[in-house]
Amino acid sequence: MIGETAFDAEPEQLRVLVTGATSGVGEATARLFARRGAKVALLGRREEQLRRVVDDLGRSAHPFRTDVSDPGSVAAGVSAAATVLGGLDVVVNAAGVAGSAPLELLDDAAWREVLDTNLSGTFHVCRQAVPHLRAAGGAIVNVASDLADMGVAGLAHYCAAKAGVVGLTRALAVELAPAVRVNVVCPGPIDTPMLRAGLDPANPVASLREKEATVPLNRLASPEEVARAIWFLAVDGTFATGTSMALDGGTSAA
């Protein structure tokens, strides 16, 4: 690398790993970094979707089928990605799942699925990636949610997981400084397949309008807007670490 850290280099020299890269924020982030010249490792569970994104992005993108909830799968995926890219400068933890159930009906399997993917998955990837990031003077950007600081009925597991991601980010920012910066973006409602899957199937249009009405800006974020915030925290915000960036259209201020 040029200079003391990865961020003294030109964008085309950056080596980036993105989880959850087959849809939503993860896919938008992978596309943004690739479009700006970075070499990108795409991690995801769905091989067909990984191949679709890689085929679109061309030679700068490399797929690695990985389940972030499985420590062994993460160890293999991160190691393979670092080998192919020649190291890692940026890691973006965007893999996530959601679900809704009142507490009395929230079974252990549903609880574990959300916590294992959203929180433990972030931990697994950070743990495996840190040696590579230390060598490069790199950065981690985690994706949490405005619900990390809000309570919503039926989303106890999701709120707990995203609050955990924020806490993990702050702890790692202190522990890994000055070699590695660690930040988290907390988006509000985003127009993603995961959000649309949770709409009322009987009246999805009205359900979508209800979600938009909860946002002071009266609309959902696009995945691309979140990807641009991730770029800032990863690349341009070189004095930012331990930062929790709200990108929620005003929900946290309301």
TrEMBL record:
Keywords: NAD, Oxidoreductase. Residues 14-183 form the Ketoreductase domain. SMART domains: PKS_KR. One of its GO terms (molecular function) is oxidoreductase activity. Pfam families: adh_short_C2 (PF13561). PROSITE patterns: ADH_SHORT. Signal peptide: none annotated. PANTHER family: DEHYDROGENASES, SHORT CHAIN, ESTRADIOL 17-BETA-DEHYDROGENASE 8-RELATED. Belongs to the short-chain dehydrogenases/reductases (SDR) family. This is NAD(P)-dependent dehydrogenase (Short-subunit alcohol dehydrogenase family).
